[in-house]
Amino acid sequence: xxxxxxxxxxxxxxxxxxxxxxxxxxxxxxxxxxxxxxxxxxxxxxxxxxxxxxxxxxxxxxxxxxxxxxxxxxxxxxxxxxxxxxxxxxxxxxxxxxxxxxxxxxxxxxxxxxxxxxxxxxxxxxxxxxxxxxxxxxxxxxxxxxxxxxxxxxxxxxxxxxxxxxxxxxxxxxxxxxxxxxxxxxxxxxxxxxxxxxxxxxxxxxxxxxxxxxxxxxxxxxxxxxxxxxxxxxxxxxxxxxxxxxxxxxxxxxxxxxxxxxxxxxxxxxxxxxxxxxxxxxxxxxxxxxxxxxxxxxxxxxxxxxxxxxxxxxxxxxxxxxxxxxxxxxxxxxxxxxxxxxxxxxxxxxxxxxxxxxxxxxxxxxxxxxxxxxxxxxxxxxxxxxxxxxxxxxxxxxxxxxxxxxxxxxxxxxxxxxxxxxxxxxxxxxxxxxxxxxxxxxxxxxxxxxxxxxxxxxxxxxxx
Length: 464
What we know:
- By secondary structure, the protein is α+β, with helices and mostly antiparallel strands.
- It folds into 2 domains: about 10-265, Orthogonal Bundle (2-methylcitrate dehydratase PrpD), CATH 1.10.4100; about 280-395, CATH 3.30.1330.120.
- About 50% of the residues lie in helices and about 5% in strands.
- It contains 20 helices and 6 strands.
- It has helices spanning about 10-20, 25-50, 50-60, 80-95, 110-120, 125-145, 150-155, 160-175, 180-190, 205-225, 240-245, 250-255, 280-290, 325, 330-340, 350-355, 355-360, 405-420, 425-435, 445; strands at about 70, 75-80, 300-305, 365-370, 380-385, 390-395.
- Strand 1 (about 70) and strand 2 form a beta hairpin.
- Helix 3 (about 50-60) packs antiparallel against helix 4 (about 80-95).
- The termini are far apart.
């Protein structure tokens, strides 16, 4: 019989997943978890209105299979794994969800997309959902951070969240299902056998699909494990383990140091602009320069964007042809910051990506590496036609833990996003519910606020 290493990585992660408790979470962790929850819910609701999300939901058969799990932004109730697929896709469809730079992931999307439908089935309360979220976030991010594994994956062409999201989401789903230790072992191994994602997908609909699949596979893995569906017991140890098959190594001590005492969610970054991670800093810098120097597009001769050298290896679209491509365009981020003084969903749409004036301005933008810059540090320099030069340095973007968004700022972002799918009354109710999420008796009271029925009537009043 196969024996498990009680001190190995798998055993330690299983133990943490199943023993974590809301009551053990520090106050600042709970605060950040509620902020991450509200942010993710908002971008998922906005993403639910995207045509690509509607296509995915239709093709998945979500509306043909009756269940109790909510597809956000719709009146569809379906099976948990199918809801997780649609909601995970919607949460990442606009690339407006949070990011954890140290592990190179967007962990909230797969974790919460998996947790919510399972919580609905179990009629879990707000504390259980918050704990599952923090637990899944912690495990997924630790796997990406340790020994630079997230960086290793991306430099190998593997999309980190497409892989690591499986484990964070599996931990959250398994915790909510109260799996037994052996079942949680199986859950991680079943998820590992499905974990995949490609960096080549950036700028296409397949990128958020990888996030949706991570959430779906995690729920499916947890449900199978709950029925004692067998798999490898120590997926992170031994021959052909998860790390070795991806060309990496680590140790249990390194991976689990401080587990349950330090929390990855405290390093989470909430985006204020609807584009890929560090390009938020470009928009931020261009808005500031245009305001402070009263710059007009016609004044600009050249824009130089200096980035840390490793950033040059990441995909970039000099002249994007679609809204999705524009989210991964440093040139477009600079252009909309200067012209629109904004970086919302509209700025990274097909319409703005193909705007001829923006295309002309993008041709005046260059990107260069600067060995003096640290990871995620950005400097934007502008030269004008009349010979003036200005620059602005962004050491960390707005929304970074060192420059955090306030609850009021986050609520404003949430409202703008959620109003794309819901009426004002429900949007306001959701802000109130999430702010006091630990008091919620049944998560279904929240999810029933997340769609408007076919008659246009709003869902029930704010839960108490």
